[in-house]
Amino acid sequence: MRFSLLAAVTWLLATPAVYADSLVEGDAEAGKGRSITCAACHGAEGNSANPLWPNLAGQGAPYIVQQLANFKEGRRVNALMTSQAMMLSEQDMKDLAVYYESMPAVAQAVSDPSLVDRGRALYIGGNNDNGVPACIACHGPAGRGNPGAAYPALNGQHAAYTAKTLADYASGERKADAQVQIMETIAQRLTPEDIQALASYVQGLK
User: Which of 3, 52, 113, 126 shows its CA 20 to 30 Å from the CA of 120?
Assistant: First the structure.
């Protein structure tokens, strides 16, 4: 617990509360035009209607660019996303990322109120017994991530998508990026009940 709290304080001191300007040099208007195809799955302004497809609104631009590049270069595999990313130039990716970063995420409630206490405990304090660090250390107290480190925002993300992502990390189906390989280790230490509690809790973060 002492390590988790220290990491959280360090994050808070090192990270600005609000990012006034994007860390990616893109054109939001151009990204909006490019997003027409993306809207079929991710919603007109980046808020997906399907809980298994991620919300992109409010997501940090560096993370979006990184993931699009991963799909294009085969480091992350999804038949639909890979085919879409293959058609994007580097500037297209930046434009899309800045556009979605500028869109407001739709606030959601937790998906299962009965899991709030367990989810909050894991998110804020981790679990020293099995070596799970506090999520707050990288993703922030409100789940807004750390754009400078390309750590994703989690607040308001569909619980079903978050749960699947953690399960995919645990199984090895999804490989973490080089600088955040810790996600695979963390996910493997979470029980299925932990994953459901965390996924429900972050859906309700605002």
Answer: 52
For 48-102, what is each residue's pLDDT tens digit?
Answer: 999 999 999 999 999 999 999 999 999 999 999 999 999 999 999 999 999 999 9
CATH of the domain at 53: 1.10.760.10
Predicted TM-score (pTM) of this structure: 0.88
* 121 and 180 housed in the same domain: yes
Burial 61-72 (b: 16+ CB within 10 A, else e): bbbbbbbbbbbb
Of 9 and 118, more confident: 118
Residue 132 falls inside a structural domain: yes
Q: Are 100 and 57 in contact (CB under 8 A)?
A: yes
Q: Give yes or no: residues 8 and 95 share one domain.
A: no
Residue 191 tokens, joined: 């029980």
Same domain for 87 and 121, yes or no, is no
Burial class (CB in 10 A: 0-12, 13-18, 19+), 18: exposed
The pLDDT tens digits for 120-172 are 999 999 999 999 999 999 999 999 999 999 999 999 999 999 999 999 999 99
Q: Which two tokens stand for residue 146?
A: 């750390």
Taking the C-alpha atoms of residue 101 and residue 61, their distance in angstroms, rounded to an integer, is: 6
Q: Are residues 11 and 68 in the same domain?
A: no
Question: Could you tell me if 7 and 35 lie in one domain?
Answer: no
Asked if residue 197 lies in contact with residue 118, where contact means CB atoms within 8 angstroms, the answer is yes
